[in-house]
Amino acid sequence: MDLLGSPSNTLLGFTSNPGYVTSSPGGVGRNIADNLSRLQQPCWLMAPLGDDANGRFMQQHCQQLGIETQALSMQKGQSTSTYVSIVDEHGEMQVAIADMALIDHFGEVQLKPHLDHLNSAALVVIDTNLSAECLRYLCAALPNKKLFVDTVSVAKAVRIKPHLQQIHSLKPNLAEAQAIADTDYGSTPTDAQLSTLAHWFTQQGVRHLYLSLGARGVLYRGPKQQFLMAIAEPQKAPIIINSNGAGDAMMAALCAGWIQGLDAPDRVAYGLACAQIAMSSQTTINPQLSPQLVQRMLKEYPCQMTPLCSPSM
Question: CA 209 to CA 212: how far, in whole Å?
């Protein structure tokens, strides 16, 4: 479950802030599945749930959205994972605590019975909340699948490093990418430094890199091209209410775009549009998300692509 605290006024540290707290179904994998269902892409969710009220609620909520839940694993006597975040008056996350102990016990035993479903899928989305052992098992069991990976956080992103040669599409933010690559260009790297960082991931075997750069947009690097893409007129973009769900919405859009056969620029634009839609909602998932709304967003807030030269391409 996601718990979100928002202040009524300027967020102050080391004291109690008047505001409000909301709760909603959460989890990176579940959020991606939720967004995919709203983008009219059928999907299965494979994840552990606690044997508690939150777990039962999340299962029912997924079923109402049309997400296939046969592979959800109910863990008796355990509590469902919970994510608590605090945003400031601008909707930007300032601190969060993730209680994800339940997922540490999720792995081969729960996934092996569903390998046929995994192998028949158009693609498989995994995130680095999964334990190192679970990631190792999935990469070994699915050597020929298109694996789309969300790196979740700086602390957990490095779990995917041993398996980069098997990753089809990787979506880290700048801090996560630098943690994986064991480099530090700071928070405002030059275009040349971004190119060097992207090239490193290509050398490790990643086929498609979507490097999220916040207000700077996304750096994409693939087999044949590399570019930066951002909303052309960011000052006209919708007001950010809650940035928490942007990354999950973008990952869902990148998956949907790939399934639809969109080329790289259109996939990235689709992802940016979904991220903007997510950030315009108080909840982590924008309940208004739909393919029609994405197309309207793309028309009203078009993206601008800037090619980035790379000596290796």
Answer: 9
